[in-house]
Hints:
41% of the residues lie in helices and 18% in strands. With 185 residues, it is of the alpha/beta class. Strands 2-1-3-6-5-4 form a 6-stranded mixed beta sheet, with helices on both faces. The longest helix has 15 residues, at 109-123. The radius of gyration is 16 Å and the shape is globular. The model is unreliable at 1-7 (pLDDT under 50).
Amino acid sequence: MADPAYPPSAPAGHRAAAPRRVRAAVLTISDTRTGATDTSGAYLRAELEAAGHEVTASRIVRDEEGAIRAALAELMAGADVVLTSGGTGITGRDVTVPVVESLLTKPLPGFGELFRMLSYRDVGAAAMLSRAVGGLAGETLLFALPGSRGAVQTAWEGLLRDELGHLVFEVRRHGQPGPVGEGEA
């Protein structure tokens, strides 16, 4: 019998077929972080590399819609997965979520739901303040994480680390349809 404290993740066949190495990019969204103070971005890069993944790019942009959208377009072109950190709260400057949601072609609502469930154990009811979101944007997986190092660690260890290859496998398994109307005469 499976241990309920450690639920199984991907089905065994999918896990065996999943790529061991994926191309990932990291985008930190902050008006105050610099390369020297971006502990969340540094954590993600280190964990991705430790897991054997290729970090194709890493960048910091201001919490401004145009900057976020431009950086995501560039990073998504060279990655299977883009992980963002920052801008998921409810302040007036937090614009990451609407930008990410506008790019998602297949949202994964379970990502945000599970993230908040895991966060609740650490921060209590304040977990509701996070609008962490994820899904598929064309052929690239895109996950918007809160900016704190603890929240990024929760998302990585609790959700992404063990499922990243499986997620990429599922995206590639049957291909993805083109935009609506593509191929119509």
